[in-house]
Design goal:
Layout: H1 2-15, E1 20-23, E2 28-33, H2 43-46, H3 51-62, E3 73-75, H4 82-101
Antiparallel strand pairs: 1-2, 2-3
Helix pairs in contact: 1-4, 3-4
Length: 108
């Protein structure tokens, strides 16, 4: 399920023209904002998203009922159904749209 969520989140960022990437292993996901690829970034750079952007993402998602566990990442589990994953992607899309319109998220 995490792969489906990561793919959905990445599609949202791409469709909305946001400079960002979604990555993770196994059941984890992380959202990076700043570049469209994380290939050349080290750990410090991945954790270097400006705090106002991190806070805005957290607040936009929490206000819609999605809680990221830390920073801009989270975990999925077998308890999350495909329907819940799809709904979470919809919520993420709505949050990203709001943050793009507010000029909080950088565009490509």
């Amino acid at each position: 399920m995490a792969g489906q969520l990561r793919k959905g989140f990445q599609e949202v960022l791409s469709r909305r023209g946001v400079a960002g990437a979604v990555y993770g292993d196994s059941s984890m996901f992380h959202i990076y904002i700043g570049k469209s690829s994380i290939e050349s970034l080290d750990a410090a750079q991945l954790k270097g998203i400006p705090k106002p952007i991190v806070s805005a993402i957290q607040q936009a998602l929490r206000g819609r009922g999605v809680d990221v566990l830390s920073y801009t990442g989270g975990v999925t589990s077998p308890a999350h159904t495909e329907r819940e994953i799809d709904r979470t992607v919809e919520i993420f899309d709505d949050a990203v749209k709001e943050l793009v319109e507010a000029k909080v998220l950088p565009r490509i």
